[in-house]
Amino acid sequence: MALPKPYLKYPKRKKGMDHDLYPYSNMFERSPITWPKNKNVALWVTVALEYFPLTSNAETTFKAPGNMVTPYPDYRTYTAREYGNRVGIYRILKVFDKLGIKASFPTNTALAKRYPFLVNEINIRGHEFIGHGTDMNALHWGGMDSDVENEQIKTALNGLRKATEQNVTGWLSPARSESENTLALLAKHGVEYACDWVNDDMPYEIGEKEKLIAMPHTMELDDRQLLVNLGQNEKTWQEQILTAFDCLHRESKTHGGRILHISLTPYVMGQAWRIKALRDTLEILMETGWVWNATGAEIAAHWKAQQ
Amino acid sequence: MKPKMKNDPKLYDYWPYLNRPKIVWPDGKKLAFWVAPNIEFYELDPPANPERTPWPRPTPDIVPYSYRDHGNRVGHWRLMELMDKYNVRGSVSLSTAICQHHPEIIEACNERNWEFFSHGIYNTRYTYGMSRTQEDAMIKDSIKTVKDATGQRVRGYLAPALTHSEHTIELLAENDIWYSCDLFQDDQPQPLHTKKKSKLISMPYSLEVNDHYAFNVYGQSAGQYADLLKRHFDQLLREGGDSGTVMCIPLHAYLVGRAHRIGPFAEVLDYITGHKDEVWVTTAAEIADYYRKNCYDAALENIAVANKVGA
């Protein structure tokens, strides 16, 4: 037994990346960025508003994290996710109100259509909506038909723009999953920044022809990742956020403005026993006086103006 | 996706947890607290189900079987003694075949005026694949079994092993069940949609603070779980001042009744029952009865208002 010969050929073995989406760049050698009022760290908070249908998507070999688990009908998972969008989210909004936090909400279009009450509560507080696909079954994957994907993106974005009456220039793919064409299709439909790639702590330009801004949307400090997948507790979540802040703040003195992103999921952080950890953490950050709290679109615009 | 499958089961309406009608529990209490010991029987050699395999290994899979049996031999008696100490009555989520297998446990609970609600007959007989008639027969059997063994009329339901069908909720209404613990969308009760005119409500069962989740899903220690429950209580009590909340601690004696866990759990009951002025320590059926009489209609009105926004 042996592998076919091409297995030992290395056609892309050269300096730089093995694709044309972006060039290599060392974050510590870039021109420093400054944030408004000379704040050191931009604080970007996102809350994902996800709608998980009771049925799962049969077309993909994978499901979005948080999707149905048991045989149909999985009332357990379906209703536990709904908890986030009817109870947890209002706890989170109260914390934002108290601390004057402005946030960005990656939102499934189906959810925006289902819950106009919630859309209104978010709009009157001046938060930002980010495109997040139609629902958590509307995945993008390598090899999918590009006409289907084009329609999927167009429908999701136009539906969200209509339901929220916002421009919607940001995008986070459901399950952060992309096809080879996703970025180009997003650019075509008016998206300016995308949040799926997890390879940087600062924005950078991404895309073969049409350019988007890749925003540093964290996966490593995501509440679902730490509290659900890894089983850590709230104290550990808070410690790591504050440790990240210390590092970014330190770097900002020599390398320019940094970004601390906090990624929240209503059915996770909006649980009664967790909400105090969110309030305490955001309060500590805001009271440092070193943060500029802004939406994804605002951070992306400030970054772009300095390129 | 099979054509008959629905994306949305439409069991209840959207109801934002914001400016809800004020619930005040009896004697002005802010939080209704109940404890749900799951007293379950798992069969060593259950019949096959088309959708779910009961045990990971071929029968006899003795370790997971005896792991659960420990609850009925050891853990239950520890937990019951502890609940006696703090005057907390259990609302038992019962595999009703326990009435046949372990009548000693049923008698001890009944003497203490604990409530029994139906958790199916065995926790190894799943609802998947049952016809409507079969599921109805299983529910009726469980109601009759409890009535015969204890004299109590079952008023609540939690599907065996949390396995459901599209008929489950409707069947509860038809069988004059007052509350379902099967839905996890809220920290307050909520009216459910049923074709049969009924005041069936969803009862917060606080799945996420279930000992199974804490210990075997999230890998928390006994001390971490106790700390979590206290913080959960603190927040729900605070919110209960705006509108009364419900906190349930769903337990399994085979988990929380272990020697290394019962001590830290005692601190939780000590802490919660230490707030007697603000907390209604009760059973699920008593909460459901009160809610249906005093809060149900106001809830329906408020839900209708919330759903007019943007409609």
Describe the 3D structure:
- Chain A is an alpha/beta fold and 307 residues long.
- Helix content of chain A is 40%, strand content 11%.
- In chain A, the strands form three sheets. Chain A has a four-stranded mixed sheet. A three-stranded parallel sheet of chain A has the order 8-1-9. Chain A has a two-stranded parallel sheet with strand order 2-3.
- In chain A, helix 1 packs parallel to helix 9 and helix 7 runs parallel beside helix 9.
- Chain A is globular.
- In chain A, 49% of the residues are buried.
- The mean pLDDT of chain A is 97.
- Chain B has 311 residues and is of the alpha/beta class.
- Chain B is 42% helix and 12% strand.
- Chain B contains eleven helices and nine strands.
- In chain B, the strands form two sheets. In chain B, strands 1, 2, 3, 8 and 9 form a five-stranded parallel sheet that branches. Chain B has a four-stranded mixed sheet with strand order 4-5-7-6.
- In chain B, helix 1 runs parallel beside helix 9 and helix 7 runs parallel beside helix 9.
- Chain B is globular.
- The chains are: A alpha/beta (307), B alpha/beta (311).
- At the A-B interface, helix 1 and helix 3 of A face helix 7 of B.
